[in-house]
Design goal:
Helices cover about 20% and strands about 30% of the residues. It is an alpha+beta fold. The longest helix has 14 residues. The chain is globular and about 45 Å long.
């Protein structure tokens, strides 16, 4: 995993937050219950809301982060709003060139769940996994197809956990 703090400039980060806030008023959202493969919902009782990032904003994000990205043909960007009890079961993004997340919350309480957990080569030997609590404007890039998951968000978080998910695709 590649982890970059303060990945977006301040103006672009605020544009992301404004577009997300605007989309929350629209009927443009899908649910992880309906759009994710069943194995990704194993052990998860809540649902994550998903909406497309506009092409304009997606292009700006891409320009800001592209130097970090592995080889790819195209990318897509989605907003994720992680509701109570939402999460995602273990997976490795092996059907994509890469997966990446930019965290949008100004802060995320440690006791609110929604931790990003992954297994790297060291974890395979020791059985000790790595985890991080979402941090404002942090990029987490799965550039080695490492197994990872998001723990369930608490039943009563103070606010939703919000992020942008970015996927790279190889030429088909």
């Amino acid at each position: 995993m590649l982890i970059i703090n303060e990945v977006l400039n301040k103006e672009l980060f605020q544009k992301c937050r404004r577009e997300l806030d605007s989309k929350l008023q629209e009927k443009c959202w899908s649910s992880s219950r309906e759009s994710w493969q069943p194995n990704l919902m194993q052990g998860i009782s809540g649902s994550c809301m998903i909406a497309n990032v506009s092409d304009e904003l997606g292009g700006l994000i891409y320009e800001e982060i592209r130097t970090y990205l592995p080889e790819h043909e195209r990318v897509t960007c989605n907003f994720h709003v992680w509701q109570p009890l939402s999460g995602i079961a273990g997976h490795d993004d092996s059907h994509r060139s890469f997966g990446a997340t930019i965290y949008l919350n100004d802060e995320w309480p440690h006791n609110a769940g929604g931790w990003f957990v992954w297994e790297d080569d060291e974890s395979k030997e020791s059985g000790i996994y790595k985890a991080l609590n979402p941090k404002r404007n942090m990029l987490v890039l799965n550039d080695n197809k490492e197994p990872h998951w998001v723990t369930s968000v608490a039943a009563t978080p103070p606010y939703p956990r919000i992020s942008i998910q970015i996927w790279g695709y190889e030429k088909t």
